[in-house]
């Protein structure tokens, strides 16, 4: 996988070696989220969260850590031009995309 040039896999390995299962779990969740993002979100929100639509779609890099509920609500119910993904993406996949966004934006 391409997430952050392999750092997710490195973080996973380091986390496991250092006895940090939470770090390893976060990295694995972000890896999963990247795949979900690539399958469902990239066409509108851009490769690697880099929105190239000129402002037509929301730039996910602008989501703050405290906007988790906003993100889940928008993905579940849709917003503006974005369709609702309820019934397509289960809550686990939505959480994985959130983990990918946070890992990418926060550099973790």
Q: Secondary-structure map with pairings?
A:
Elements: H1 7-17, H2 21-40, H3 42-45, H4 68-77, H5 91-106
Helix pairs in contact: 1-2, 2-5, 4-5
Could you please describe the fold and organization of this structure?
The N terminus is likely disordered. Helix 1 packs antiparallel against helix 2, helix 2 packs across helix 5 and helix 4 packs across helix 5. It is globular, with a radius of gyration of 14 Å. The two termini are 16 Å apart. It has 108 residues and is mainly α. The longest helix has 20 residues. It contains 5 helices and no strands. It has one domain: Cytochrome Bc1 Complex, Chain D, domain 2.
Give a quick precis of the structure.
With 108 residues, this protein is mainly α.
Instruction: Give the biggest sheet.
Output: none
Count of DSSP E strands? Answer: 0
Q: Tell me the radius of gyration.
A: 14 Å
Elements, N to C (H/E): HHHHH
- Give the N-to-C terminal Cα separation: 16 Å
Structural class: mainly alpha
Helical residue percent band: 55-70%
Helical segment count: 5
CATH architectural name: Orthogonal Bundle
Low-confidence stretches: 1-5
CATH topology description: Cytochrome Bc1 Complex, Chain D, domain 2
Strand content: under 5%
C-alpha geometry: globular
CATH superfamily: Cytochrome c-like domain
Arithmetic mean of pLDDT: 83
Q: CATH top level?
A: Mainly Alpha
As for the number of domains, it is: 1
């Amino acid at each position: 996988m391409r997430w952050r040039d392999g750092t997710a896999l490195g973080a996973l390995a380091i986390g496991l070696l250092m006895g940090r299962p939470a770090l390893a779990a976060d990295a694995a969740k972000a890896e999963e989220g990247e795949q979900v993002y690539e399958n469902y979100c990239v066409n509108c929100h851009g490769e690697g969260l880099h929105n190239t639509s000129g402002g037509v779609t929301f730039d996910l890099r602008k989501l703050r850590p405290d906007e988790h509920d906003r993100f889940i609500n928008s993905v579940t119910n849709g917003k503006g031009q974005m369709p609702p993904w309820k019934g397509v993406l289960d809550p686990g996949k939505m959480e994985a995309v959130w983990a990918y966004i946070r890992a990418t934006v926060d550099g973790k």
